[in-house]
Specification:
Elements: E1 8-9, E2 14-19, E3 22-27, H1 29-35, E4 38-42, E5 49-50, E6 55-61, E7 65-69, E8 74-79, H2 82-85, H3 88-92, E9 101-105, H4 117-130
Amino acid sequence: MSRPTDIKYAKTHEWVRIEKDIATTGISDFAVAALSDLVYVDMPQVTDLLEQGQPYAEVESVKAVSDIYAPLSGEIVEVNEELGDNLELLAKDPFGKGWIVKFRISHPNEVEGLMDAAAYDRHCKDEAAKH
């Protein structure tokens, strides 16, 4: 899968698509493949505050429970209610219908610390080589 180039990526395998002051975020195809066999996502609530680098949700696979980290700080304005009933969205369309939350960005300058698609590809290759 080629990764979208209109979004930014965190080293912890979350992605973020920014439209004005609203960001949509989820976990990358790399994270979905590493977790495999997803069984549950513990979703946050609308109005919850996100702090960059801090966990805001959990995803559970048959292998493990993993935290999902906020790629940027902000306030959640929408959660993807469809995910609760259909985790296949994460596996089949992680950068589209598999989004997790939308939030209002509170610190736009944090975007500078995220990677573009090319840098994230290199990061994934380096990480895969370690395992």
